[in-house]
Every structure is written in C-alpha cells, then in structure tokens.
Amino acid sequence: MSADRDIGVVVIGRNEGKRLVQCIASLVGRADPLVYVDSGSTDGSVEHARAAGVEVVSLDMSQPFTAARARNTGYARVRDLAPEGQYVQFIDGDCALDPGWFDTARAALDGTPELAVVCGRRRERHPEASLWNRMIDAEWDSPVGEAKACGGDALMRRAALDAVQGYREDLIAGEEPEMCFRMRALGWRIRRLDAEMTLHDAAMTRVSQWWQRSRRAGHTYAEGAALHGNSPERYRRRELARTLIWGLALPLAALLGGLLISPWAFALLLLYPLQVARLAARGTDPARALFTVLGKFPELQGVLGYWAGRLSGKRRRLIEYK
Question: Which homologous superfamily does the CATH classification assign to the domain defined by 7-205?
Fold first, then answer.
C-alpha cells in the first residue's frame, strides 16, 4: 500500500506510551506527511516516533500549552511538507486509526465540495475495563449524518481549515466544536459518517477522573457561550442553562425553600431521581443516566471556575483527567 500524499496527518500527545506506539503503527505507510507533535513527554515518545520515520515537532513548553496550539503547530508543519495537499487528519496519540477510514472519509470529501469535516465512529478500546470507559464509548456513538461538530479525530479539508485560521489556541477545551461553529458560519458542512474511524483508550478507572472530565465540559459550555452565545444558534447556551438549573438553581431552591418557607420544599430534590428514571426510560443505560444527572455538579464547578478566571483575569489552566 502506498501512502496517500494528498492526506497529511497530525498526531498530538504527551506520555502516551504504548498507546502512541499503536497510533503510529496504524498510520505509517498510509498517509504522507505524518507529523507527531509532542508536548513534553518523558517516556520515550519522541524517540519512538522518530525511529518509526515520523516527523516530530516538540512544542516549546515555556509557552502555555493547549491541544489547539499543538494541532495548529502540527498542521503548519504539514503545510510546509506538503503545500499542495487537500486534506489533513487530526488524531490524538491515545487513538489508533481504522484501516478502512481514509478510503471512506476521502470519498465523502471528494464527493461533496462544501463538506469541511468528516468524522466516524470512535470506540473505546477497553469498554469492559470500567463503568467510565463504557459511558465514554456510548458518548462517542453520536448520530450519523449532518452534525454541528466533530471531536479530536477527524479528516478535514485544508481549504476550510485555512478559511477559519485553524483552532483557537487560547481554548483549554472544546476547541473542535468551536472551530466547527466558525466553519459552519461560513457555509461549510460537518458530517458524521456511518464508518469505523478510531479506537480510543480513555483509561478511566476512578471517579475522580470522571469528575475532572465533567468539570472540563462545564468549562467548555461557559466559555463557548461567552464567545458565541449571542449568535442566532445561541452556541452552548442550552448546555450551560442545563448545568445551571440542575447544578445550582434546583438545589439552591430546595435548600432556601426548605429553610425559609416550608420543609416540603426539600421535595424538589426528588426531581433528580425522577430525571434519572426519565433518561433510563428513554433508553439510556441506567448507570449512564445516573452519572449524567450527577455530572451537573462537576460541570457547575467548571462553569464557576471559568467565570472566576474571567473576572480575575487569570489564565485558565488545563483540566486533565489522565
């Protein structure tokens, strides 16, 4: 199999170890150029990538790091190495690409000029390892067809990426949906294909990891709404409202009402198990339904953290779960 010179690949990672080895093995010989952007690994990731013949870019870690900055840096190198290429595949270093993805994804982009981004089914490598992995695997199973956004793994048309000047490097989370929002505002389209794309290894085994990941989601909602919430789409306003209602307004109403008006106000807290039951009745796995509802509390922490940072003018730090 000869490498596709029309598709460049950008892999980003830090201390991914065996996961990066699997990632690179799934890509070598299939696309060219292949660029790995490392953000301060100490586990031999850089040496392994170079030994595999991959172009390596090491980020200057004296500058604030974001995944968006890493992706933009990798894409700039792809453009230098292959100025005439049409497409670029972004993939995280803890993922491995499905063998059939490029053929399916490229055919979709080739056939629809206004299509900017295609993504497919991202699956967890070890869903049986923990409840959290199973929940993430279900989360990845988003509807097929026209979409508003993609995740970290996607094949993109370089013309569309150039039109929006890439990712916003100051975002510590949610950079892919935000960029897709800007693409769609220019008339580009995003599509989720009914095709296998990547295997991902979340390696989530602790409730603290779930909490951090949920907190990051809340930050994303707050920042997204601050950036584009006044657009006709009301970007991220709905998610933000849900977090504020379930994470703050409802428990506050129950507490103040119960203390100041009537103990019956504490019955408002029964809305939480009722919401879990409602989600389960609609087909959501009961465990996922439970943690979807409970997740509003760490999401609220992320929202409040974003607002506090914005008021104080302090730069927001990465929220990592592994």
Answer: Spore Coat Polysaccharide Biosynthesis Protein SpsA; Chain A (3.90.550.10)
